[in-house]
Amino acid sequence: MSWNRVAVVGAGLIKFGELFDQSYEQMAAGAFQAAVASVDKGFDPKAVEAALVATQRGSLWGQEGIGGNTVPSAIGLSGIPCTRVENACPTGSDAFRIGAMMVASGVHDVVLVIGVEKMRDKSAQEGLLARAASGHPVYNRGETAPVLFAPFATRHMHEFGTTREMLAAVAVKNHHNGKLDPYAHFQNEITVEQVLAAPSVCQPLGLLDCCPQTDGAAAMILTTAARAGEFTDKPVYVAGFGVATDHPALHEKSTYVGLPATTLASGRAYAMAGIGPDALDMAEVHDCFTITEILDIEDLGFVEKGKGGQATLNGETALDGRLPVNPSGGLLAKGHPIGATGVAQLTECYWQLREEAGERQVAVRHGNALQHNVGGRGSGVSVVNILTRNR
Predict the structure, then answer these.
(1) pLDDT in tens, 241-294
(2) Distance (Å, rounded) from C-alpha 38 to C-alpha 160?
(3) For a Cys staple, 330 with which of 14, 98, 259, 326, CB 3.0–4.6 Å?
(4) Cα–Cα distance measured from residue 363 to residue 352, given in angstroms and rounded to the nearest whole number
């Protein structure tokens, strides 16, 4: 199958944070307006033929009807086909993948992918994330997100000598990048010493090893490669994607030093794109915790297994490093509004490939960028998308 037949011609997002002053629909409208305004040659919103709304609101809030029927009217597109997508932390990534397939199939020429999430209207103590596994005999027995990821950190330390300083280097790097990103939830530098001294959450993970709960929205406009020139002279194409699953429960895992779903998903994405990790200019990866980014860069083939911590400490993943990772600030600094996260990561890739990322712009040599999420209780699903500016 020949890919690069789907183009991204517009992308935008709202500033992430604690957005108590905005409703779910207002956030969605803000992201859509930003995407429309970004289209170089102008864009009539009525050109959108169908939409995909990425949101975890069903699981998190128990309101399954929200999204697919409320967002179109909120953004002035009532009447268009619209489907709500929910697939754990890769929800936005998967919505983008599905949108690309809708365009590639020829059913629709112009598709909107919009991710939106309200995370801060309820506290963690009210069991916001626990709702996603409500009633399950295993998942809701104390298995909070930090509890699920801490064993990977301790095992990685045991097998490869990974240190807390290496974990801290991930947080320091991503907060540095976040300070340069006007859309990030946190825009402050931190030090290794601050990370190490932060209150413990679940050993060896401290407070600054963990991403925040964040509100946010992001949107992208997809069209056929043949029509991309109507909207911009600098389109970014969908080169490939991959999805994979794994056993969700900790006691079913085959390894605690990697996330097999990520390896499988990235292998499929690389094969579709016809490239390997050496052809990437940058990557936005899932860093819900510092250990997760270390696992990611190993599972995605950026470094050898066991070398992710040292590579980070050595600056290989910094903005000016061998392969910049999370120039947006990542989930650790930018935030993790679940449905919006993947779409926002893809927006960063789009901006980077168009060399429009301002102070956090990386060197573009190959013209390829990778976006990745992993999630579900115990990292049971992963989605990888690869974008390119090469037709």
Answers:
(1) 999 999 887 888 899 999 999 999 999 999 999 999 999 999 999 999 999 999
(2) 45
(3) 326
(4) 9
Active site residues: 89, 336
Helix, coil or strand: residue 353: helix
Give the CA radius of gyration of the chain: 19
Alpha helices by DSSP H, listed for the chain, are: 24-38, 57-61, 71-74, 91-105, 145-160, 164-179, 192-197, 260-273, 290-299, 308-313, 330-334, 338-353
Please choose, from the candidates 244, 243, 180, 188, the residue with its C-alpha nearest in 3D space to the C-alpha of residue 212. Answer: 188
For residue range 166-214, what is the model confidence (pLDDT) as tens digits? 999 999 999 999 999 999 999 999 999 999 999 999 999 999 999 999 9
Paired residues of 245 in beta bridges: 381
How far is it, in rounded angstroms, from Cα 235 to Cα 214? 30
Of 381, 371, 281, 262, whose CA–CA distance to 321 is shortest? 281
Give residue 97's region: left, alpha or beta (phi > 0; psi -120 to 50): alpha
Q: What is the pLDDT of residues 333-379, one digit of tens each?
A: 999 999 999 999 999 999 999 999 999 999 999 999 999 999 987 78
In the structure encoding, which two tokens stand for residue 229, read together? Answer: 């020139």
- DSSP summary character for residue 151: H
Q: Show me where the domains of the chain are located.
A: 6-126+210-388
- Reduce the DSSP state of residue 366 to 3 states and report it: coil
What is the C-alpha to C-alpha distance for residues 21 and 373, in angstroms, rounded to an integer?
28
20 vs 118: CA distance, rounded Å: 9
Please state, in angstroms and rounded to a whole number, the distance separating the CA atoms of residues 120 and 138.
26
- Asked if the model's pLDDT at residue 136 lies above 80, the reply is no
Report how far residue 279's alpha carbon sits from residue 35's, in angstroms, rounded to the nearest whole number.
Answer: 28
Domain 6-126+210-388: what homologous superfamily? Thiolase/Chalcone synthase (3.40.47.10)
pTM: 0.95
SS (H, E, C) 10-70: EEEECCCECCCCCCHHHHHHHHHHHHHHHCCCCCCHHHCCEEEEECCHHHHHCCCCCCCCC
